[in-house]
Amino acid sequence: MSSLPNKKTGALSREENMENMMENLVFEHLESYGEQKESKKDSNLSKWRTIQTFTNDIVNQSCCWFATDLQEGEKLSPTDLLTTNILSLLFQVYSDQLLNERCSVSLNAKNWEILSYETNNGKLFYQARFINDLIPIAPVFGRGKNKLPKWMKKHARPNQIDDAKNCVPPGVSCPTPVAIFVSKNLSTLVFQSIDSAVKMEAAFWLDRQFCSAGKSWTRRWYNHNFQEMIEVLKKHATKMVEEQL
């Protein structure tokens, strides 16, 4: 049986509080675990590292990930995963229209936390967390919101492979997620490259921000056009201002 927030108070159930505590343990303290002595209990966690600096090659490549204009002669394939480009453009337009300032997204510590995970045979996988909170996450909405995946309602990110793949538009190339168990009952998803990890994290952010559901329908982020996304963000920003008055 799935656990639901308390109808009167909106508080999370005991089970969801426990899950949130476990996620905080995984995502906020990975670096400290890496410095501890390995044991059977934390041997997986000790394989995580936070990447502090990036090679020039990765930095140069990342310019294309966040570009909002095509270079002369550049062409896009219908199967390209452009989530980071869309994310970057959303932040530019949002900051320009609502904040009267210019905000850009790039591969740096202000926007991203990149983690690496090393397997027993030395293979590296990566996970990205988008940590720029300039645009607040909108609350889950729609009459059928209880149909949405639990990770959206918890303002988290998917830890199931199928949930991750559903964040990518049909017909678009989807990096292959790999599930890593960080405890007996908790897994997290990683990817084979920093590029894939960042683009999938952008897909998670977009779906968490714009996905909605009715009684008989679900509308993912990629079912919106860009102007509709901006209108959702404006509406949420206006509501937040009104609530603060």
Task: Itemize the secondary structure elements and their pairings.
Layout: H1 14-28, H2 30-34, E1 48-50, H3 56-65, H4 83-98, E2 112-118, E3 124-130, H5 150-153, H6 161-165, E4 178-181, E5 187-190, H7 194-210, E6 212-213, E7 218-219, H8 226-244
Antiparallel strand pairs: 1-2, 2-3, 4-5, 6-7
Q: How much helix is in the residues?
A: 25-40%
The total of beta strands comes to 7
**Which regions have little confidence, pLDDT < 50, spanning 5+ residues?**
1-19, 21-41
Distance between the termini: 39 Å
Q: Profile the largest sheet.
A: 3 strands, antiparallel
Q: Could you state the order of secondary-structure elements as H and E?
A: HHEHHEEHHEEHEEH
Task: Please give the count of helices.
Answer: 8
Question: Major sheet: order of its strands?
Answer: 1-2-3
**What gross morphology would you assign?**
globular
Report the structural category: alpha+beta
Report the sheet-strand fraction: 5-15%
Q: Using the CA coordinates, give the radius of gyration.
A: 19 Å
Report the average pLDDT across residues. Answer: 81
